[in-house]
UniProtKB/TrEMBL annotation:
Family: Belongs to the dUTPase family.
Residue stretches making up the dUTPase-like domain: 27-158
Species of origin: Corynebacterium hadale
Binding residues annotated for substrate, in chain numbering: R78, S79, G80, N91, T95, V96, D97
Protein name according to UniProt: Deoxyuridine 5'-triphosphate nucleotidohydrolase
Length: 160
């Protein structure tokens, strides 16, 4: 099966709506997936910036989106940048709400303790995953129903 046919079948199977995208920087590539069927589309840095160890910076991507109501954009780190260079995202995943129309920005952080890292303009710095979300209302109650887990939270199940 050709890659194009495979992609067409995937899109038909999940019925993804096309997302309106405004290119704010015509010299940067549009977000794109590295492989057919990948969840995340790569986002590119609109600037060159050097992050010293422990430093963070808000970096533009040169694109804005019009996500439909009932969806959310989640900005995730790229695994290779994290594993090889310690580059991550402070608020991972970053949340892009459906009503937001500004430039997508990524709050990068250099977690390496000794080496600065230079983000070059046009470098792939993050991945955007678009998902459907359940829009729920909340109702205040006096008590919650009992469960086996109860209030067991952080570390309550141990490590073994």
């Amino acid at each position: 099966m050709s890659e194009n046919n495979e992609y067409t079948q995937l899109v038909g199977a999940v019925q993804l709506p096309p997302i309106p995208l405004k290119r704010l920087d015509k010299e940067l590539p549009l977000p794109k997936r590295a492989h057919t069927g990948d969840a995340g589309a790569d986002l590119y840095s609109a600037e060159t910036i050097t992050l010293e160890p422990g430093q963070r910076a808000l970096v533009g991507t040169g694109v804005a989106l019009a996500l439909p109501l009932g969806t959310v954009g989640l900005i995730h780190p790229r695994s290779g940048l994290g594993a090889k260079h310690g580059l991550s995202i402070v608020n991972t995943p970053g949340t892009v709400d459906a009503q937001y129309r500004g430039e997508l920005k990524v709050c990068l952080v250099n977690t390496d303790r000794s080496e600065p890292f230079t983000v070059e303009r046009g470098m792939r710095i993050a991945q955007l995953v678009v998902q459907r979300v359940e829009l729920v209302d909340f109702v205040e109650v006096d008590a919650l129903d009992e469960t086996v887990r109860g209030e067991g939270g952080y570390g309550s199940t141990g490590t073994k």
